Amino acid sequence: MGSLIECRDLWKVYRLGDVQVQALRGVTVDIQRGEFLAIMGASGSGKSTLMNIIGCLDSPTSGTYRLSDTDVGSLDSDALAEVRNREIGFVFQNFNLIPRTSALENVQLPLFYRGLPLREQRARAAEALARIGLKGREHHYPAQLSGGQQQRVAIARALVSTPSILLADEPTGNLDTESSREIMTVLENLNRDEGITVIVVTHEADIAAYTSREIIIKDGQIVTDRARTAVSAGGR
Amino acid sequence: MGAFLLLTVTTAFRVLSRNRLRAGLTVLGIVIGVAAVIAMISIGQGAKAAVRSQVASMGTNVIIILPGATTTGGVRGGQGSAVSLTVADAQDLKKRIPLLTDTAWGKRDVMQVVYGNRNWNAPVNGISPGYLTIRDWSYSSGVPFTQTDMDVAARVALVGQTVVDNLFEPGEEPVGATIRLKNVPFVVIGVLEPKGQSSQGTDQDDIVFIPFTTAERKVLGTQFLGSIGAIFASTDRTEDLPEAVVQIREVIRARHRLQPDQADDFTVRTQIDIAAVQEGTGQTLTVMLFAIASISLLVGGIGIMNILLVSVTERTKEIGVRMAVGAKRRHILLQFLIEAMSLSLFGGLLGILLGVVCARATTVVAGWPTIISLESIAAAFVFSLAVGLFFGLYPANKASRLNPIDALRYE
Fold this sequence. Notes:
The structure holds 2 protein chains of 2 kinds.
Chain A: E1 5-16, E2 19-31, E3 36-40, H1 47-54, E4 62-67, E5 70-71, H2 77-87, E6 88-91, H3 103-114, H4 118-131, H5 147-159, E7 165-169, H6 177-194, E8 197-202, H7 205-208, E9 213-218, E10 221-227
Parallel strand pairs in A: 3-8, 3-9, 6-7, 7-8
Antiparallel strand pairs in A: 1-2, 1-4, 4-5, 9-10
Chain B: H1 2-18, H2 20-57, E1 62-67, E2 71-72, E3 75-76, H3 87-96, E4 100-115, E5 118-127, H4 130-134, E6 139-142, H5 147-151, E7 156-159, H6 161-167, E8 178-181, E9 184-192, E10 208-211, H7 212-219, E11 230-235, H8 241-255, E12 266-270, H9 271-314, H10 316-324, H11 329-366, H12 374-400, H13 404-409
Parallel strand pairs in B: 5-10, 7-9
Antiparallel strand pairs in B: 1-11, 1-12, 2-3, 4-5, 4-8, 4-11, 6-9, 7-10, 8-9
């Protein structure tokens, strides 16, 4: 069995009017099951594009992307939705919870689209919320929760479908330092205790410091790919 | 799938109840459209039923033959102004046309009817006895007059309920009383069962019947002996009416010695013709209401489409999130379709309610009969659902075709 993620010579070219933008220029990277890594880079470097491709939200212009030995490039939009539903959990910078919908129902969402019975959806969503310390907040609306709590709900939503990868795009971008630390600890624990592959996209070095591998992208190419030897938990 | 539908429907209702005013205004067109459909059908069906019962009150399978119009000095008189039909015509019809089960004749005039110190103007009809059978009159009290009364020109009369109400004290027995027509005393021998309004809106119970012979000799007078105002005939079966009309025309044309190039000097009408005219008026109204209903349903549908397009734009980010966690296109499509159909269904139910109220109000205020049928309610229900489906399709399809990344990035 190969790596969990295999990217081979990925190119992504956009056309913005007359101008061609090369967001990715030949990215090749392997990510193993159970890794905790950071993708870093300035804005416009192509790190978000790479994340979207890994998250099966976008497809490369050329090159191949294999996820769990499946060539994702050959899948249609329904099959991609299926892969996102089962294999990937997203955590966004601005939480992206559905407004005026309870925490529990937000967490239920992936199971809802998987077509599980309502009772099972509720039970698993409640369990996921409890796991990240939000027991008792099931029926709160996003607006009634703090930023840190909202991001935990989002993590619970990503976890509830037991994905192989958790993709976090600037997960602490909208949080204060205290909440940021909490969220990174949650991600760290999930990786260590449950073996979930966690990929964090960030431009902050102190967030990347939680991870064990660091990929730096510049102008659509990987310029640095190194393992962190000394994991300095909580180090900033 | 069951859980999916249940949650999608609850989500749709939650989204809609969040914007109650907006939802309410959006469905207004549907409400008016459906209400118009319900009112239209109930008024139409009510009118049809009323026409049918009025036509039935004329008797069954009745043929009426009226004298034709005269033209004097280039001025055409009204129908019946010519004096061209005679008792002999009527008797000959009976003899020559086996299809006719009954024939009768009569003439009429409005005159003063006097009882004691009271008087009342009523149409007085001199008729042959068969008339009562043909027009299906029955008696609330007393007896009809007979051929003997006819033969001896007896001074007997049958009176309608309206005449009774206007000449007699409440509780007074009209049968046996003596009334006067043109100073000629008549004994009331029967009171007619009320028939109500005719299809032309005249009071059929405002009437006095006397034997034709008595009328001719003592009350109404005559232009020439045997001239009559109308001939009445009936057939056993409704299907025989057209054939009977053809034969009647042949017989009377021959009797009147009309040349092939001459027009009829009489008119033959059947119940079928009269009913068709009456139902025609009802149809005009129905067509008008149908036009109103279609336009408001169209406007309502466009309203729903518009609000859904707004909703899709407002919730682009939500759509992106749903797609990111695994919603397929059909899930998004279904979500917005269900929202559209919930809106139109809500409008439809309100419209049904309003339509029923309008129909009832029409009956109470204007006195028009209305019939609210289960079919019309079911049709309105299905129609409103169809409007939601049709006008929801475009916005829902648009939502389902969003690119997940663009949707997620949308601010």
